[in-house]
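Re: that chain you flagged

S.,

Sorry for the slow reply, it's been a week of failed gels. I finally had a moment to sit down with the sequence you sent. For the record, here it is as I used it:
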Amino acid sequence: MNRPDRLVFGVVAAQMSDMEQTEILQGAINQAKTYNIDIAVISNIYNPVESSDVLEKENDIYDLILSDKFDGFIFFSESVINAETQKKIIDKFKKLEKNIPVIAVGTPQADFFLDNFIFVNTSDEHDFEKITDHLIDVHGFTDIDMLSGFDFIEVSHQRVDGYRKSLEKHNIKYNEDKVCYGDFWIESGRLQAQKYINGERPFPQALICANDYMAYAFLDELLKNNIPVPEKISVTGYEYVRERIYHYPILTTFQRNRKGLGALAVRMLYKKLTSGKYEDYELPEGTFISGNTCSCGICDAQLSDEQNDVSLKRTFDFLSLFGQIELKLTECRTINEFIHICREFRYMIRDTEELYICLYEDWYEDNALSENIICYDIFYDKKPVTLNKYDFSKLFSSSAAFYNLSPVFFLKRTLGYVVARCTSAAANNNMYRNWLKAISNAIEFLRMKNDIQYLNQCVNLSETHDIMTDMYNERGFKSAYDSFIKNNTGSQVHFIMLKICISDNSFSKTGSGEKISAIIAAADSIKKLCSICGRINDNTFVGILKKDISDSNMISKMLCSIIIRNKKYINSYGTDSFVCTSHICNCENSYHDEYSNALDSVENKVRIIAERHTFAYYKKMIEIRNNMYIQPEKYFDSELSELSPYSTGHLRAVYKKCFGVNLHQDFINSRICLAEYLLFSSELNINEISMKCGYQDCKYFMRQFHNITGCTPNQFRKLFR
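Prediction finished late last night. Pasting the structure tokens below so you have them in one place:
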């Protein structure tokens, strides 16, 4: 298991299943083999544009950058699109020794580089010059339009520069009016097509699109309007994303030399480490890929290769029967059983020869992050070994190879990581991502089970506590309730009940990762309001709150406001999937009396929601309501009609029939709901809260707030502080 002394190059990226990254990586792997160098990819699994609390801990995988086993790094800078992830990676690079070289693959980005970064990339300008050359030299076109990407980024203008350079080389005058700017996505292509179809712009002989996705949408829109391609207009794309056989006609495009780029990065690192300086280099040139959107036509051999790729992908997607592995993993009661099931399903991992699940020694604890990892061999029946978390290279083989280092995490818990020795960059595929997700969820599920190991490790576990939520179970809550009432005689105490997932039949299925997430999210919500609370059964929570508030309904509304702002829960289940109730306790009543009173109220509300589900238009109405309550500041009630296929009048009628409140009033309620949450949870002043809730006039906001709640915003804040 101890490897010979070889260079190890780290590749830092995000969501390595992306095709463009895979091709760059494959080029790096091929070049590294010639130098007897190990390649180890450090990458997260997901890559959200916006921050996500659910995915926060997966980025702990980038801590491995600090391992002293790396001799240099190749950084796929353009793959990381989330600002917080960018900052985390940059912070890790800053902590490295200054003599460790870093090759950044991509275009330099503001606030996302360091002085020791050397940027390399293919030449977009050169590529677009060649595309334009083809249209002029082969097809004789002189009237050529271009659809580029965002007007405010450099790469868009580099591509235009190549187009312009070719025109001027052929003595064709460049006209900036023939260049349009989009957003590199399908809507831009569709809108460009409409401009030609509607006569807003005259049809040119050809259109060059700055990427394939815009070209696909452009072609689809022309086809819908019976406009022939290439007879009426020739079309080219760029980047060759391998989806063109799903579109008609098959797109003519240009393939960037991504493999050449990966190979170049490895050569430059090797040159720097062996000679002390970077080599002079030429940018790797791409390849023109003919298709049916110009008169060249598609190459039969090329088409055959693409069809084989699609067929292979479908085959493996069919084999990806994760329901089976997920079910079996959630049945495990020990880590040994878990590893055994992982070995049973190892056939699902493509292009991989060795795989280790490396869990922190204290993975079963709430705040686990030991310096040591326990490494379980999944492909071979070997005893687990314990290593320092940065010493993963001891798992490397005796000959140079390529490795994936991927996170194992659940919500706000880091559990460990996976080390996989792979035979090709294709190992970074969606099946592998799904497998990682399955084992991560299953390890967390195992952590929460009442096996002997877990009982011995969890000091807070007792007969009075719920394991999953770390709050009271029914026995514990009853005891806490009796004690609290006894010590607070004469005080106003509110009994609160929350029932979740009432409209989701799948919630009752054991082993569901979403079920666990929903329970934890609901528990977090009620904990924010009540210091004493418990989970009474699978989806029912109770709490008690000592507050001098005469209207107990205000308490349940506050809890509703809190859970609606819980994105983990609402994004999965929606605003119509839970009910809350609250009433003032009678000190002469027992716990069971108060519980029964609350349960009657909850069940009545559940029946009302169940009736809504029988309405033919319920699904569309709840979609509108979810959008409105999740982002009340985004919409005016008049704009909500755009989300519905019904006329404005009909929409208002069916909405009121469905929810018992008219659309306008519920729109106001959604904004007040957000205001209540901000008053409760933040230190923002009233004017700031007014703006965040979509109000331009603070006085108008205060009047509406008082009309709904019966008190001013400041009075409301004092009630809950």
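What I noticed first: DSSP finds 23 helices and 22 strands in the chain.

Talk soon,
D.
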